[in-house]
Amino acid sequence: MENIKYVYLFNEGNASMKNLLGGKGANLAEMTNLGIPVPEGFTVSTEACTKYYKDGKVISEDVVEQIYEALNNLEEVTGKKLGSIENPLLVSVRSGARASMPGMMDTILNLGLNDEVVATLGKLTNNDRFAYDSYRRFIHMFSDVVMGMDKRKFEDILDEVKESVGAKFDTDLTASDLKEVVKRYKAAYKKEMREEFPQDPKVQLIESINAVFRSWDNPRAIIYRRLNDIPGEWGTAVNIQSMVFGNMGETSGTGVAFTRNPATGEKEMFGEYLINAQGEDVVAGIRTPQSISRLEEDLPECYKQFLQIADRLEKHYKDMQDMEFTIEQGKLYFLQTRNGKRTAQAALKIAVDLVEEGLINKEEAMLKVDPKQLDSLLHPNFDENGLENARVIAKGLPASPGAACGKVYFNAEDAKAHGELGEKVILVRAETSPEDIEGMVVAEGVLTVRGGMTSHAAVVARGMGRCCVVGCGDIKVNEDEKTFEVNGEIFKEGDYISLDGSTGFVYGDAIKTVEPEISGHFGIFMSWADEIRKLKVRTNADTPRDAAQAIKFGAEGIGLCRTEHMFFDEERIFAVREMIVAENENQRKRALEKLLPMQREDFASIYEAMEGRAVTIRLLDPPLHEFLPTEDEDIAELAKDLGITFQSLRFKIESLKEVNPMMGHRGCRLSISYPEIAEMQGRAIIEAAIDVNKRKGFNIVPEIMIPLIGDVKELEFVKNIIVKVANEVIKDSGVELQYKIGTMIEVPRAALTADEVAKEAEFFSFGTNDLTQMTFGFSRDDAGKFLNNYYDKKIYEADPFQKLDQNGVGKLMEMATKLGRQTRKDLKVGICGEHGGDPSSVEFAHKLGLEYVSCSPYRVPVARLAAAQAEVKNPRSTK
Ligand code: PEP
Ligand code: MG
């Protein structure tokens, strides 16, 4: 019989055991060892969770046994007993995965209460009101979280009782009102579940642990995991902790605080609390809490102690801490600490400040900022002119910065549906609920009526870099009618509003948004990233504008210039079409001659924008039919312009049609059929380089890239065309020019025969979009339609077109790099598929020893940081 330890007392763990105990469990253990006041408890490990799933969603006997053993121990140290009517132990049951997933999984508080224990609790505390308030909360949570009942049933009962006794707030209810609430809650439970509310605390406990394990796989947790690259196999731990009560009267309270401002990064205590309340009141945003600084007036001793411990925790963890605390009758307890989620601005400021304060070094600072978050820095602000006449209709709390403008929708489903249609959407909710996550993903911004800066919407929005305003009590939402009212004005579903997540202002009109300015901390931090990283970062750019933007973001060159985008230009498309319908080589050459000066001009302006940096230009790639119209009307018009008959043009278009164009007549295959195309492009690339070198004094060495080869002979064929024309042009010009010819590796056969390919290629660039397509046999265009089924069935957790499949496609890349360098020691290798801007794929490229990654301009900063992180985690020099 295996003898695995699944349950750990808090004093048996430490912060390094995150994988086993989850973040929360490991930190509770660490705080316990540091002597910080933490209520006693134990953690059921993540391995117990994986076992639970392996065993078919049951908690096995040996795990139950270990839980009971730890419970005995807890009863001994607290001197209390679960279910005792003399000195009852009450516990909380909370999830805690390796990575924090705020609000995504379940929590149960006040467990251990039943009809008898509640009476004892009332007597012991001399506070019946508190006892019954705790019991009604427990029944509500257990029924909702563990048994899956609709929580609105309980909210309705509470509202009914409040109304019948004229109570405005929950805190206005008396002990006997709360007894009535409990009675009605239990009746509701019995009616729906067809049994009494469970009175045996051990049953309550095991059922609750079961529910937390189960919640690891609830839909919102799955979505959150996919967004944050958290593998499903990690599982969650469960923390069972003896309860301390923030709802025991005016010297009790509970709150959440950050050691630095999570929106701006400012070094100031930032947080909120509620007197006489339990934790979920703060985070669920049901009551709007008070600023932490008020605690100094309410409970000065606690405040002092709180500040001391918070400071100690920050220094211990060397990072901004997000802490949950409870004060029970004047005594302070810490229930949780973790590295706090923060906006991108705050993350940069905190990382730079921590280095300047001497708490961490630059390498450690790299790991304090999530590369994906940098995206949000590049997000829009309001156009100043647009703002001048804008009408402020309300103000809420500025929970997550940025500006957003869109049409209002009142639930996640509608927001998602309209967002996916390409509408700009603002999600408006009465209060925040983690189920809204799907709507938040598609929304430009989120607005909620209730809730504080630490409510779920605020935390999640900040993590996503989504503009968010919460606690906006000025507006009244009618979710059934899908409207909101503010100052007598009604806004319907589909009406425009704008949000400023930095000020909390809500505007009643559509306001234009503009690109952001980047702060000083960004510059400092990114310069450290550049010092550290070994991988170069280039950009995929086809226009001088994109190239210039990418340079601003730190690109070191162009890794992919897709020339077809130039062909689509209004001025050129006609010549391109002439080339396609040409009946013979001569006609085709004539059309190409018209394109030559335009292409030369294109390349020259890109070289100029890149100011001498490396530029890789790829020859024409897509199938030709993409340049021709499909509608009869358009075909007729074009036929007239081209001076040919409708019939013959239609016939040409029909003949170019392919069943699977992605696998069809594209890439180098076009140049093999029509060498004139490669010749024209080669000439334009070389002539432009000579011209710009002369005019600007640069030393451009054009890199000419041949796409979609699968056999070295294809490469050789196209290369010979380029070499011939390039050498002619160079000779005629009378000046020196070096150039390189390389290839994309995007057909598996090219990867498999990379040693042969490298004989002809001076560089490789992995086209991981096509390489993924062809390795999986998934069409790039169609896979999106069915990949969702793969996620649902847990066959894949991530889209292989976004996050590189390291096991399969990655293996091909590894092989190709090795084989290629066997033939050509100094072979330069990079990536230019979409994966070039995905942090985990960048890390893979670093480990593989590639020279560079290339990605779209806005992802350049993401890739720079990801490359620095990769070097910190796996230094190349020590390999
Ligand atoms: C690729 O296939 O990864 C690539 C960069 O080329 P394209 O996306 O243009 O096919
Ligand atoms: Mg490709």
How would you explain this protein's 3D organization?
This protein has about 900 residues and is of the alpha/beta class. Among the domains are: about 245-340, 2-Layer Sandwich (D-amino Acid Aminotransferase, Chain A, domain 1), CATH 3.30.470.20; about 380-515, 3-Layer(bba) Sandwich (Glucose Oxidase, domain 1); about 535-625 and about 660-875, TIM Barrel; about 625-655, no CATH class. Strand 18, helix 19 (about 455-465) and strand 19 (about 465-470) form a beta-alpha-beta unit. The chain is elongated. The mean pLDDT is about 90. Magnesium ion (MG) binds near residues 707, 746, 769 and 770.
Provide the helix percentage: 40-55%
Ligand types: phosphoenolpyruvate, magnesium ion
* Spatial strand arrangement across the major sheet: 14-24-23-16-17-18-19-15
State the secondary-structure class.
alpha/beta
Question: Ends: how far apart?
Answer: 42 Å
Key descriptive features of the protein:
D-amino Acid Aminotransferase, Chain A, domain 1, Glucose Oxidase, domain 1, TIM Barrel, 36 helices, 33 strands, 48% helix, binds phosphoenolpyruvate, binds magnesium ion
